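Colleagues,

For the teaching module next term, I've prepared a clean inverse folding example: a structure given as tokens, and then the sequence designed for it. I'd like students to try predicting residues themselves before seeing the answer, so please don't circulate the second half yet.
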């Protein structure tokens, strides 16, 4: 369809839509059901059945099943059936874990899906791009990613970057007029917008003409295919580690089998025991468990308003050393607030120490000089901000969110409301005859109003103090109007300078009473001979939680750097308020950055805490200089031009509320609330996720080492088998699965944000983890073997009872050891009841252990016998020995 050659009216008629109303919700739903969602075709997700079958697609499982078949052929039916049941249960656990991870990642993808603004039933609403249908009227502005093929019907300085489609990086200027030529290429269709392209400037209104695979992008969908599942650096290291561990486990298992055969054990028994030991010992599930741990951590981050778009970011978060943060909206509220009023009769500070306004309408009239009341009255009158909140009696409770309009005007209306001046009442008493909008060249705004009661007419104006002063001839005082002398002008300048030192933006307000028939054609005629009433000083105040968040980050070894387009004085004042700028810390502006290379900046950047009046190019230079100093950089941003710096940083952070689509797409992390404190919370969660991964690696490997060594030592010493194959498989199922997963849900340790950031090249076995795995595994294997020998040789029990004691000792030693794994220090460092999931997992494992020991039906299957109370005292004492002895020694050494 040659949409570009049609007029706007013809296009709307063809898609059966209305420019002013859009589609009805019912019609949009019908079209969505008929034509499908606005998405490019992706690889179909695996069916639950294929996910389940894949759990058994493992070399060691195949060997175990072959051994099971041999068991059946030799008449060992109970062993064969039990092994099959255990393999099946293990497959079910893997299936549910993998499905949970997939659902977590799917939910994440939905949360970060792009949106479009569409006209539905006469109202503009934001909806996910996937729900857009042909005929939807949409609007787009700077920074938006166009989510479907559209025909523009209104444009204003609109330019679109179409490199994703055409390869041409220069933005294309767009217009709404129909094109005469019908057969032209995509790059020349200047009245069309295409899925996946980016609005770089201006704004426009358009009607959707194609969605999903019917778009131009859909026709070349291979260029826009969805991202493949990413493997994190940690997962890569674990895969390499897994190969080494598999080789080691197979060698040790082979030694167990050979020693067993040499000692006279049956070939079949040793082969089955060896295969079972290999299945239990090889941590083939480590990468999968890491994925699940990352996915669970991602879900926790979502609850804390941080959406992780790329899993590697979770790992990198724990390594962050510098956070480069925008000021407006991230460190501050992005809500201009009037904090000071000035007139020749006095100054009122409108803000308490806690940031709340220092007066209400109950006492304002008594405390306010007449000039300041007139300042608030005329200041509110000379605004176009509208109060959207329904009528209410408590006008002093009015909030900026209840008012629409320019942030400066909103602040003036809120300040007046706190003093009892309700704009809704003010505008009822006047008739607005003419408005001269604000202009950046003349730096003023004015309007002509008529008082309905007195019939007097006024010009009311507001603007930059230096400009308005030049247009004034008088100044308001308590006694009335007085001539604006040079000394009065000096007073004004001193007041403005004092406010500027406090980083306040200043707005002056003036007025003039008009003659009865005085008319104006141009604003220059109206904005003369004014009477200056006073000045309002305002600022975007810091978020209340930011100061503590910066302090906490500093304790964690993470430095915060402010990067803003604001003036140097404003940025420096805010930085001092929130504790970001230390004594001796440097402030640098864009002009200084222009004169420096990245190499020059690298040498001094560790002393710079504030960058003011910066451009997007400066941000990229700052990121590169920090990275060349070995810093791991998190960079925040919201605009299109922030994307290069966000992408170049180690952790790109986009604003979820104010951020543009392109900033979000370039980012690794999206803040749903735009709060700086959320970054700190994300860093804390990132560190905890990495710690939890180390915990269950430590637990699983130490347990596996213990299982291998108890068998190896027994064979080397010529002892009977301390464990049979079915018991080894049962230990793998009961003690490795649930407790290991529960460790992944552990809360952070108390000092997690008091440690230095982790080195990106740090080995998974760093900080003593390798020694802990070997020492705990060795001790678990030794105490299990001692328990087996004691029952067999000292107590003189039968082989089956001794094996049952060894079986129980090994299980309990691992379950006690899991609590030691919760801390980098020792089992005594944390409350054992701090992770209820782990308590539940351990209790479940204990109950299952008791079932196979005491239920008569299970005893012949698992080769167990019932144990006495004294046997359990012995088992628990031996099982606790590795954890208590080694953890206790570590605690003593740490205290020393």
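(Answer key — instructors only)
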């Amino acid at each position: 369809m040659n949409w570009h050659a049609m007029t706007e009216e013809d296009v709307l008629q063809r898609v059966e839509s209305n420019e002013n109303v859009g589609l009805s919700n019912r019609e949009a739903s019908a079209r969505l059901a008929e034509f499908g969602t606005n998405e490019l075709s992706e690889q179909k997700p695996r069916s639950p059945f294929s996910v389940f079958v894949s759990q058994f697609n493992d070399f060691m499982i195949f060997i175990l099943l072959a051994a099971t078949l041999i068991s059946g052929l030799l008449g060992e039916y109970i062993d064969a059936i039990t092994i099959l049941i255990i393999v099946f249960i293990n497959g079910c656990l893997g299936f549910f874990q993998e499905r949970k991870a997939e659902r977590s990642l799917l939910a994440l993808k939905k949360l970060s899906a792009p949106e479009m603004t569409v006209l539905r039933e006469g109202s503009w609403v934001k909806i996910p791009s996937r729900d857009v249908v042909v005929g939807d009227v949409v609007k787009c502005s700077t920074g938006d990613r166009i989510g479907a093929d559209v025909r523009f019907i209104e444009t204003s300085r609109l330019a679109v970057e179409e490199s994703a489609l055409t390869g041409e990086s220069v933005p294309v200027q767009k217009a709404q007029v129909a094109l005469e030529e019908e057969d032209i290429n995509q790059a020349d269709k200047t009245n069309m917008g295409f899925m996946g392209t980016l609005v770089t400037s201006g704004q426009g209104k358009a009607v959707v003409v194609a969605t999903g695979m019917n778009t131009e992008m859909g026709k070349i969908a291979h260029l826009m295919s969805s991202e493949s599942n990413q493997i994190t650096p940690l997962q890569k290291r674990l895969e390499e580690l897994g190969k080494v561990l598999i080789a080691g486990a197979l060698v040790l298992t082979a030694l167990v089998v050979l020693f067993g055969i040499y000692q006279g054990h049956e070939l079949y028994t040793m082969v089955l025991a060896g295969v079972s030991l290999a299945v239990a010992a090889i941590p083939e599930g480590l990468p999968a468990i890491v994925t699940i741990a990352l996915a669970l951590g991602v879900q926790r981050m979502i609850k804390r308003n941080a959406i992780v778009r790329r899993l590697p970011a979770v790992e990198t978060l724990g390594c962050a050393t510098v956070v480069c943060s925008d000021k407006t909206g991230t460190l501050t509220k992005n809500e201009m607030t009037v904090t000071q009023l000035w007139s020749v009769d006095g100054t009122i500070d409108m803000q308490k120490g806690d940031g709340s306004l220092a007066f209400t309408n109950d006492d304002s009239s008594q405390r306010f000089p007449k000039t300041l009341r007139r300042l608030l009255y005329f200041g509110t009158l000379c605004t176009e901000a509208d109060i959207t909140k329904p009528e209410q009696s408590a006008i002093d409770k009015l909030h900026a969110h209840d008012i629409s309009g320019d942030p400066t005007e909103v602040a003036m209306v809120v300040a007046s409301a706190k003093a009892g001046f309700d704009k809704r009442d003010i505008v009822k008493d006047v008739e607005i005859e003419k408005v001269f909008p604000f202009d950046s060249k003349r730096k003023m705004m004015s309007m002509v109003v008529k008082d309905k009661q007195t019939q007097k007419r006024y010009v009311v104006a507001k603007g930059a103090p230096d400009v308005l002063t030049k247009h004034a001839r008088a100044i308001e005082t308590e006694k009335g109007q007085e001539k604006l002398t040079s000394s009065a002008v000096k007073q004004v300048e001193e007041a403005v300078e004092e406010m500027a030192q406090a980083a306040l933006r200043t707005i002056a307000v003036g007025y003039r009473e008009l003659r009865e028939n005085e008319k104006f054609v141009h604003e220059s005629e109206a904005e003369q001979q004014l009477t200056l009433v006073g000045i309002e000083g305002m600022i975007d105040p810091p978020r209340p939680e930011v100061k503590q968040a910066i302090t906490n980050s500093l304790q964690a070894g993470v430095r915060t750097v402010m990067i803003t387009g604001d003036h140097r004085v404003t940025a420096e004042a805010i930085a001092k308020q929130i504790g970001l700028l230390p004594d001796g810390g440097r402030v640098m502006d864009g002009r200084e950055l222009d004169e420096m290379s990245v190499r020059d900046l690298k040498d001094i950047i560790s002393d710079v805490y504030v960058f003011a009046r910066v451009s997007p190019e400066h941000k990229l230079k700052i990121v590169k200089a920090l990275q060349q100093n070995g810093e791991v950089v998190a960079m925040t941003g919201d605009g299109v031009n922030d994307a290069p710096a966000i992408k170049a940083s180690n952790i790109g952070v986009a604003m979820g509320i104010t951020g543009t689509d392109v900033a979000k797409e370039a980012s690794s992390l999206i803040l749903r609330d735009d709060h700086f404190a959320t970054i700190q919370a994300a860093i804390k969660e990132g560190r905890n996720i990495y710690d939890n991964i180390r915990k269950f690696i430590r637990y699983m490997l130490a347990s596996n080492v213990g299982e291998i060594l108890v068998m190896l030592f027994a064979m080397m010493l010529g002892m009977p088998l301390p464990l049979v194959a079915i018991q080894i498989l049962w230990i793998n199922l009961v003690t490795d699965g649930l407790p290991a997963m529960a460790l992944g849900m552990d809360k952070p340790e108390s000092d997690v944000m008091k440690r230095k950031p982790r080195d990106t090249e740090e080995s998974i076995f760093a900080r003593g983890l390798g020694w802990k795995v070997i020492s705990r595994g060795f001790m678990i294997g030794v105490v299990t073997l001692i328990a087996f020998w004691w029952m067999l040789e000292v107590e003189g029990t039968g082989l089956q009872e001794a094996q049952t004691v060894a079986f129980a000792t090994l299980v309990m030693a691992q379950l006690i050891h899991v609590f030691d794994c919760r801390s980098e220090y020792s089992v005594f460092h944390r409350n054992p009841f701090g992770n209820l999931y782990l308590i539940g997992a351990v209790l479940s494992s204990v109950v299952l252990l008791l079932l196979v020991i005491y239920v008569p039906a299970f005893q012949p299957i698992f080769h167990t016998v019932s144990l006495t109370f004294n046997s359990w005292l012995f088992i628990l004492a031996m099982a606790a020995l590795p954890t208590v002895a080694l953890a206790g020694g570590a605690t003593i050494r740490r205290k020393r």
